[in-house]
């Protein structure tokens, strides 16, 4: 007994609710369903929790800026890593995004400094060399006592292209340039490794 | 060559960033990884997009309230459904949450009015009868020309318990009480249906 399906007027969703659902669904990985769920959660949540979230969003935009040296995020002029006297200033690790800095810091293995490109080459998305912090990197290599540049861009097409471009730019400067090793992920399973990864693992095999 | 893993100081995450990650991860279904992703997305996003989201959160709390009759969400005194002259005022559909109203409206099948309980019975979570809008429902059934009450609480343990409690309360009032049909979902597959659903489908079979 389906009646004439006079479509459920979206006007049933009151306007501020519709606006919040819309704002949430503009975030990456958040579809309309998740956006509704978050919105209705906040409707029921304590006033304070909603206000905390709103304030945190505003403050992150107002207070956070980029380190004037390495372009990592910071609240002062320089980021905590550039300010630290305990880091090796002769090794610079080049990453695409500030989140990559955190990922590498979590390993506890790296004691050098960073340079954040803020993206990767992607002509299809309209991202060219001039949109990345590449000139600033070259300037640093020329003015700072850098001995090694680790190109830690992502191991995918865009990351490889970006690394290759930077490698060409660095060549005349005579600095050592390295790239992160590729191989099997720890805890991984040979059987499930893709051919490319397994190929890299074979090429990069080392003596025991 | 793992060095002494002087643990990556969380202080590397600048404070406003840490606070936004924390605020995002207090939302349901958002873990720390997703919260970081959203935070770093907003860091890169246009000022305006971040401000839109923050304002939408504040406004949803400031402007949205509950319909004084059916407890659906609204911005005025009554919700759009209660205000509409085109709804059958003799049928009332009882749901757990405002989102359930939207789900039923999307079907285009229902022309009656609603009553939102704002939860379900759940002694384990400390939600008892008095936390739900049950007394208000009984008052409506006594004062409005209601002929049928559809108990559309969820088809799970809490929803069933809630429906059973309301059924008992409604019994003395002599109103017709119905429950949504249970059976195979449209587009579903007999082979993958759970025993309970398939059992309900058998019990509820009808002549063709």
Largest interface by residue count? A-B, 70 and 70 residues
The CATH topology label of the largest domain in chain A is Dna Topoisomerase Vi A Subunit, Chain: A, domain 2
Give start-end ranges of low-pLDDT stretches of chain A: 1-9
Number of strands of chain A: 6
CATH C-level label of the largest domain in chain A: Alpha Beta
**Order of secondary-structure elements of chain A:** HHHEEHEHEHEHEH
Q: What is the mean predicted local confidence, pLDDT of chain A?
A: 89
Percentage of residues in strands of chain A? 5-15%
Report on this model:
- The structure is a homodimer of 208-residue chains.
- With 208 residues, the first copy, chain A, is an alpha/beta fold.
- Chain A has two domains: 13-63, Helicase, Ruva Protein, domain 3, CATH 1.10.8.420; 84-207, 3-Layer(aba) Sandwich (Dna Topoisomerase Vi A Subunit, Chain: A, domain 2).
- Chain A is 42% helix and 10% strand.
- The first copy, chain A, contains eight helices and six strands.
- In chain A, the strands form two sheets. Chain A has a four-stranded parallel sheet with strand order 4-3-5-6.
- In chain A, a hairpin with a 6-residue loop joins strand 1 (65-66) and strand 2 (73-74).
- In chain A, helix 1 packs across helix 2 (32-44).
- Chain A starts with 14 loop residues before the first helix and ends in a 5-residue tail after the last helix.
- At the A-B interface, helix 1, helix 2, helix 3, strand 2 and helix 5 of A face helix 1, helix 2, helix 3, strand 2 and helix 5 of B.
């Amino acid at each position: 007994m389906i009646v004439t399906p006079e479509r459920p007027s979206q006007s049933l969703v009151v306007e501020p609710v519709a606006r919040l659902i819309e704002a949430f669904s503009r975030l990456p990985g958040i579809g309309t369903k998740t956006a509704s769920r978050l919105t209705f959660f906040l409707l029921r949540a304590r006033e304070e929790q909603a206000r905390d979230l709103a304030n945190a969003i505003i403050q992150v935009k107002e207070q956070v800026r980029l380190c004037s040296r390495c372009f990592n995020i910071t609240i002062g002029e320089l980021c905590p890593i550039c300010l630290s006297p305990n880091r090796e200033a002769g090794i610079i690790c080049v990453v695409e995004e500030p989140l990559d800095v955190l990922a590498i810091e979590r390993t506890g293995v790296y004691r050098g400094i960073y340079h954040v490109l803020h993206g990767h080459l992607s002509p299809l998305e309209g991202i060219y060399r001039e949109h990345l912090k590449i000139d600033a990197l070259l300037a640093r290599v020329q003015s700072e006592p850098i001995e090694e540049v680790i190109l830690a861009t992502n191991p995918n097409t865009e990351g490889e292209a970006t690394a290759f471009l930077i490698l060409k730019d660095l060549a005349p400067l005579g600095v050592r340039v390295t790239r992160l090793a590729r191989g099997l992920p720890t805890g991984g399973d040979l059987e499930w490794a893709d051919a490319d990864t397994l190929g890299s693992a074979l090429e990069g095999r080392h003596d025991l």
